[in-house]
Amino acid sequence: MSEEVLINVTPQETRVAVAGPGVVQELLVERSASRGLVGNIYMGRVARVLPGMQSDFLEIGLDRAAFLHVANIWRNPEPARPIEKVLAEGEPILVQVVKDPIGSKGPRLSTQISIAGRLLVYLPHDPHIGISQRIEDESGRQALRERLKELVPPDEKGGFIVRTLAESASEDELRADLAYLSNLWKVIRERSMGGEARASAPRLLYQDLSLAQRVLRD
Questions:
Q1: Coil, strand, or helix at residue 170?
Q2: pTM of the entire structure?
Q3: CB under 8 Å, gap of 24 or more: what pairs does 1-6 form?
Q4: pLDDT by residue (tens digit) across 181-200?
Q5: What is the C-alpha to C-alpha distance for residues 117 and 213, in angstroms, rounded to an integer?
Q6: Cβ within 8 Å of residue 56, ≥6 positions away
Q7: How far apart are CA 155 and CA 157, in angstroms?
């Protein structure tokens, strides 16, 4: 089945339609004045700790505070701890938006960072290799896992999710995507670890691609 991706860009908004065959299967709209936040990485600052809800409200530079639940705090290999034992008011913390604000609710956050490339998704805090669920053949999944293991540097502390497109990718393409994501994370870490970044929190460190660019990437 053939698929078409139609992209219309205006100064006010971008519209993307995925059609095939002859029927629109998916329609995505992103307005310039209210661009989505999912994927953005911030140096946030804890504004309020709520032990009863096991949650924090964080300032990330928006009109509304963002929400971080204890379940979205990456702590491997540490055992689970109450949120009041993990974070304190005024503390800077590196977070990523996982859900856009809805109505009166601010965006939802996670401390487990993931950065998407064309073939791979990089998980700098989670040292394992996962395979897209769309790749159903078990022997093919294992072969992809082994291919990537051979390309990952021995000192790499993060992990990767292999995307569906990687099934037909060459070794050079995989290596290029791996290097791009590793270098991008290095830049983000350098931005986050400086005293200036922590002192000036809340601060945007990385903004995900626009809708049109994400669709072309994906």
A1: coil
A2: 0.87
A3: 5/215
A4: 999 999 999 999 877 767 78
A5: 11
A6: 46, 47, 48, 49, 50, 67, 68, 83, 87
A7: 6
